[in-house]
Fold each of these.
Amino acid sequence: MEPATFARALGRAGGWSIEDYLAAGGYRAARKALLEMTPAAVLDEVKKASLRGRGGAGFPAGLKWGFVPPGTDRPKYLCVNADEGEPGTFKDRYILGHDPHLLIEGVLIAAYAVGLHRAYVYIRGEYEMIARRLEAAAAEAYERQFLGPDVLGTGFALDLWVHRGAGSYICGEETALLESLEGKRGHPRLKPPFPAAVGLFGAPTVINNVETLANVPGIVLRGAAWFLGLGLPADGGTRLFGVSGPVLRPGVYELPVGTSLREIIFTHAGGMLPGRKLKAVIPGGLSAPILRAEEIDLAMSCEALVCAGSMLGSGGIIVIDDRTSMLEVLLRAARFYAHESCGQCTPCRLGTNWIRKIVERLAAGGGRPGDIEELARLASGIKGRTLCPMGDAAAMPVLAIVEKFTSELEEASCRS
Amino acid sequence: MSGVFADGLRSRIEALAARYPRKSAALLPALHLVQAEKGFIGPEDEEALAGLLETTPVAVREVVTFYTMFRRRPVGRHLIQVCTNVTCALMGGDRILDHLRRKLGIEVGETTPDGRFTLTTVECLGTCEAAPGLMIDFDHHGGLTETRIDEILERLD
């Protein structure tokens, strides 16, 4: 079975224009939803499909939509999270750049199911060229009445705007994204209230990742049973896995949820470059705790990764070879999180910088007794003690590297 | 304040503001427009934007200094941003950065004396499958080697 939701996004079928998309049956799902189904029926189908969020947290999309109060007179919003800032993650770029109408169709169906009329796509600032492509696609959709005041002649109205970020990892966190969309610094909000109740401009808001929404047309068109059949009972469909690092064929692969990590690296990505040996894998973006080479016989699903002490996250798989020092990986991670902490919560603001300073000293050969324990102590002091998940995101990779590669770190830091 | 922005820029900012229930929400896209036109964001731009978007100069300053893509100083004609995150480091990103330093004769954060290039480092650009990567202005380049960088730079004015 060849899963094909993302064939166009991955360059195996046609161009990005609306003509190409329509010729391949595009917007049929939107027609079916708006002309033949009630919003409740669409919502029910997505719930039954067990579509988990593809951005990082893996929260069921249907459940999230269901939290938005129905039928209020207040405005409601849909925010598409296209910030894609998690290091090692690059899959949404393929959808945005090569199959923008798949996303727009997903947005349209989601807006209909939830009963909202305004959507913003928050795209990372560095994807300027891709933002322009998406805007061009949106203009095509307006022209053909898939967006605008009277979608498909049904009287349903939907506006979609592309909003560029400006270089900030924290803005991928959903409440920081809302702040940023409102024209402010990306400081995450205290939850509750959750965005479904009080979100953008104080109104009920749904926030979904690009890949999550891009799965919606397929679910509506082919049904929840089809989608579930592709993946696992509690985690349906396929996922876009991005593989990077010293493998033969780095890239994005669409594979069923539950595909083994070993198979992704050694079959689909072609295995290690000649002369390199697998040392470790970061399985779901930099924040996902690292796995040793012998830990990769794992089904890539939200649950299995949690059981293995890591997380599926964004599906960005960073492969690390035997030539790489773990101290170097730790250094890059420590600098990244210290740079990206928004500064709002003390444990994260100070903790990430203390960690960075110690790791920089270790990397310069100035290790002292107790440094490694201190790193673990500082990381534990951040974890669970911040407003948003970035504290955990910064702490978890440090804790995992320190725990799994203690002796290597000790040796490396004593060498001057 | 009306003289700070040319009429074209001003009307584009006003069109952006109409997309949101509060004008101030257009601040990030508006700053991108101003920076694209002027090269950086000066104090007079911050004040003018605050007026146009019904917010305060200090709120604009907060945003300008929070986001790494906004600049308060001019940069060279081309801004080279080299990724230093994990995947690029694994794939030889340091070698790329060293080559650029030597070739341009400048350190990270500096501009060449002829004003042609500014060199900076940057966090993950989202092009990890082509690591080591960098971005010049808004163009992403991957699969870099020393020779490839020389070719890319030669094509720029």
Amino acid sequence: MTDREQSIASRPAPRRWGRRFVILVPALWLVLFFLVPTLIVLKISLSQTVIAQPPYTPVLDLSAGWHGLRDFFAGLSLDNYRSLAADSLYATSYLRSLAIAALSTLILLLVGYPIAYGIARMPRRWQPVLVMAVFLPFLTAFLIRIYAWINILQHDGLLNTILMTLHVVHEPVVWLSTDTAIIIGIVYSYLPFMVLPLYASLEKMDDSLLEAAADLGSPQWKAFWLITVPLSAPGILAGVLLCFIPIVGEFVIPDLLGGSNALMIGQTLWTEFFQNRDWPVASAVAIALLLVLLGPILIYQHLQMRTLGDR
Amino acid sequence: MMRRNPETSGPPVAVGGLTPAGEARPLVRFEAVSKRFGDFVAVDQVSLDIGEGEFFALLGPSGCGKTTLLRMLAGFEQPSAGRILLDGKDLADVPPHRRPVNMMFQNYALFPHLTVAGNIAFGLRQDGMARAEIRARVAEMLALVKLDGFGPRRPHQLSGGQRQRVALARALAKRPRAFLLDEPLAALDRKLREETRLELVELQEKLGLTFIVVTHDQEEAMTVADRIGVMNAGRLAQVGPPTEVYEHPSSRWVAGFIGDVNLIDGRVVSSGLGHAWVEVAAGVRMMVAQPIDIPEGETVCVMLRPEKVQIETSQSHAGHENSFAGRIADLGYLGGTTLYRIQLDGGTEIKAAMVNRARRLDRPLVLGDRVWVSFAPEACMVLTA
């Protein structure tokens, strides 16, 4: 074997290690900052609340040896989940969150699709500018933008002033502390997350497909439904999930713009954690939310794998 | 190369751009059609008739306006001036989806989210055809393009050649009045391209439809078309059957674009009955069997196809007209033929192509050999444009 052959033969080995190392970094990251914290929260959700530091029991004490470990597992229970199921407050909170998230996501899709479509049909050189414009609000602080909405939506705010000047309404409308305000805030805040994946899938579309549809006898509006919409389905799915999942757990927007009578699940969690100092129940709420959202995530994964398999 | 015989296939068609008066109405008529994109004139005053059942090729280099002309017929572009008539009806106000023509796109433009059957059925569904009828037609089209059983596949599961067939079937499924093909074979490799050419011809004969093909490949145009329209810089340079375009090009440009050619500049020294003498270099005079009414002394261009030139190693045609001594300056062996560049003693250079009839491993002629070239006066033609 010559030197040259030898060097070729020995090359794959370091490459394999390199490949493993590349996977190791994100894997380590996920274990350290996602899996471990989730397991801690899961453990706390199975604990009981006590007035102590930390405010729950049992606490794992490794110095007590085998007995300590056995006592630790014996102390865990599903009581928190039982109370979650027993108290209708939690169920309504979950349902409310899902309903608001579903409605907001639908509105986001209806508003975001034309925007993304419009940008994708613009001359090439304008598209990056317009995509930047969609993200421009992110350059100012999120909280300031939500406070601005309080200003706009309040009794003598900008919206009511405009509506009264235009004689659409005769007396100020109550916007703040309503679900409408929450949805306005959510749609405003999440729009870029809907527009971007939609734009990404619409921008890839081949114009000749629409010409082919027209050539085969399909008027423009029909070609839009038969060609453009199905081909942008991956973008629609990505946008919907990218918005829906975080909206369900949204806390700041409903807290600042919504009323105090009905809570979204994020607010319920916050109350349990900070006001009632009930870490175990708060953790159970979080784990239950995770399970609720796991459904859509798994569906997304499944569809993603299928389209990948198609290629 | 297979060439179609215009006598046996296709209806009789007039030579030239427009059908003469008295003949049946053409299927497609372009009337002084122009298309401008800003300052750029893509199509410039094109008038052209295409007959029913004809296989017509628009041939030209890229950017000559041939695709724009086709797209105007399909309705994707509006003419800046002039009219396009189909069956005598002005198409100006007919949107693309109402025109009874179908196009096969250069990139095929198959719908990636539909199956092969779904793609073929797409146009039929737009017409509101009954389900059973659609199914029957799809099966018929799949059989026509030899893709039986491929109905449930997706376009990305097919090879390039199969995709091309699906595009063909999809456009033909609606039985268009005119079938437009934009560079139909450009994406195929050479071997497949040659096979598909013949299949296109068979398909057109079987269906009796009017095919209008846009191509930059002159060999393709010559093989498939009844008539060729040669385009250059937005204008129609010449329209005619392949033989006419090849043997009687209307201009230097057409002669140079189609096939290999010798274009030799010279001066008319005498012109008599049915022939003329052209001096192409000091002492080199060529006789051209073509009556031309060009005064003596005028500069002209002699067109001579390389395959019409004979090369001999001895001077057997001494004293005959168009027999010149020279030296082989360059040669290229192409397998079936060999291309020679011969430096004539008078100074002119002539390209000659010889068929390699005998199977010989040592070439009979090598660089620098002294040879005699000759050609018939009928083999060449004087071009004035």
